[in-house]
Design a protein that fits this description.
The strands form 3 sheets. The protein has a 6-stranded antiparallel barrel, surrounded by 4 helices. The protein is of the alpha/beta class. The chain contains 15 helices and 18 strands. It has 2 domains: 157 residues, Rossmann fold (3-Layer(aba) Sandwich); 313 residues, no CATH class. The longest helix has 22 residues. The mean pLDDT is 94. The chain is globular. 36% of the residues lie in helices and 20% in strands. It starts with 8 loop residues before the first strand and ends in a 15-residue tail after the last strand.
Length: 494
């Protein structure tokens, strides 16, 4: 997708001087060969320098992988490894890094060519902590060439997300709508994560929008919108204004990204937006998200941050939804019970006005926003995208800075069920195991807002590692506990 990094992982083999360096070299070559046989060889770079207990070798290896264009590092313990120089390498490498270690291949190596990397990984972990170096270490970080190749491949989306945050700018327009204090955004943690934030007024955006009136590119964008919507184009009269708005946002991104590689947006969409701009921005938000620039509604800064992480991790389009409403028991009895392995309290509806990309909807129509039209003229509420979200696996998650400036997150895997919603907006029937308990003892108990990011696929394992890597305390990463495992705040006699 656009607006996401491409990673190149430098593999540096390390060797302690009382072990033969040839052992690391042979095992490193086998690792690289195994990776190329199974995955894209362009993902990795094999550093020819083997580090022994020498800081000079470490410096040379660091220069080599930088020259090769590596933006992530894998320290490979081909044998016991030099705890000082290998952790110095990690310390001085500016980017995400991981450590893996070689297992003993067969019985024959035990007599003379044993590497003892299983032991060396303990020393590496201890020295990383001594130096306050943050590195990714897999769940079981020791393996043969094929095992380590798999670990490196699993590291790629983790590395992408952590690298991307260090090179991200979030651009916001306007304060949150009144009564949306739940989407509070203490920005100190953004800076701690390496994210830049540019906050603008709605007037700035409106001024820029007016300057784009008559833009010669508008007809081309309108044509693309017509092709995207197809038969769902129910409000053709508003497409030119929507195209003008889309161009406004894209030009703002290019004019304001500064030195940052990646950009996300968050905008205010009501209550004054409709009457001033003459439409609602939902469809444009959905299009930009589909093009790799996530846009969250209601100036939800941590919402767009979460969307961006989900996009990078899943390498796919994401969306932002309200954890919105219960399904009627009638719907559960008719369409879910006995057909899917979910309790009534496992289900809910995820909804937003119309910010989900057409590619993630089972069907769609571009219409007016029903809730806003209750109090405003219909003609200024056109521009929302309505349709049922396509069924399939999902991960519901969010990264949030709490009111007192601490990082907190949650992750829950589930699915969108193939059940008609009979409702409006971009909406789907969601099912997550033990959602009722998760809703009470994580989402409510931990003070999360109603907005959640949705990745289309099961990426909980990767998100958990990303959140750990970027500094979310493990105890602050909430997830849906299985039945029989009690939350700390859950009544044991309930």
């Amino acid at each position: 997708m656009n607006n996401t990094p491409v990673m190149k992982i430098g593999i540096v083999g390390v060797s302690r001087d009382c072990f033969p360096a040839s052992l690391t070299k042979t095992r490193r070559e086998a690792l690289v060969k195994a990776y190329a046989a199974k995955y894209d060889a362009n993902d990795i770079y094999e550093c020819p320098i083997t580090i022994i207990e020498s800081e000079i070798d470490m410096v040379n290896a660091l220069e080599d992988i930088k020259k090769a264009g590596c933006n992530a590092l894998c320290v490979f313990l081909g044998n016991f490894g030099p705890e000082i120089s290998e952790t110095l390498l990690a310390k001085h490498f500016d980017g995400p890094k991981m450590f893996v270690a070689a297992a003993e291949e067969d019985i024959a190596v035990l007599s003379a060519d044993r590497g003892d990397a299983y032991c060396g990984m303990l020393n590496a972990g201890y020295n990383l902590q001594l130096r306050n170096v943050n590195a990714y270490i897999p769940e079981y970080p020791v393996g043969d060439a094929e095992d380590c190749a798999d670990m490196i491949h699993d590291f790629i989306p983790i590395a992408k997300a952590t690298y991307a945050l260090q090179h991200l700018k979030i651009i916001s327009f306007g304060p949150r709508p009144m009564n949306f204090l739940a989407c509070n955004a203490p920005i100190k943690q953004l800076y701690n994560l390496g994210v830049e934030i540019e906050e603008n007024s709605e007037l700035d955006l409106y001024e820029s929008f007016l300057k784009h009136e008559g833009d010669e590119r508008i007809p081309e964008v309108v044509k693309d919108m017509e092709e995207d919507l197809g038969a769902g184009n129910k409000k053709p009269q508003v497409l030119a204004k929507l195209a003008q708005y889309e161009l406004t946002l894209k030009d703002w991104v290019e004019g304001h990204r500064g030195y940052r590689e990646f950009v996300t947006l968050t905008t205010k969409c009501w209550p004054a937006f409709q009457t001033m701009f003459g439409f609602v921005p939902c469809y444009v938000n959905s299009r930009l998200t589909g093009q790799g620039i996530p846009v969250s509604c209601e100036v939800d800064i941590y919402g767009t941050l979460s969307e961006f992480i989900g996009q990078v991790v899943s390498d796919d389009i994401v969306t932002l939804l309200d954890i919105n409403n219960t399904i009627p028991k009638e719907m559960y009895e008719n369409d879910i019970k006995g057909k899917f392995d979910y309790k009534f309290t496992d289900t809910f509806m995820g909804f937003h006005c119309g910010n989900t990309c057409t590619k993630k909807l089972a069907f769609c129509e571009m219409k007016n926003q029903a809730i806003m039209a209750r109090t405003l003229p219909v003609e200024v509420t056109n521009g929302t995208l309505e349709g049922d979200i396509a069924p399939g696996e999902i991960t519901f998650f969010r990264l949030q800075s709490t009111a007192d400036g601490k990082l907190r997150s949650y992750i829950a895997e589930g699915e969108v069920l193939p059940v008609r919603t009979h409702s409006f907006g971009s909406i789907g029937v969601f099912a997550i195991k033990e959602m009722g308990r998760f809703y009470r003892h994580v989402l409510i108990q931990k003070g999360f807002p109603h907005h959640g990011a949705v990745a289309f696929g099961k990426v909980g394992k990767t998100l958990f590692e990303v959140f750990k890597y970027i500094g979310v305390p493990v105890e602050e990463i909430g997830f849906n506990q299985p039945e029989g495992v009690r939350y700390p705040t859950e009544n044991p006699w309930a």
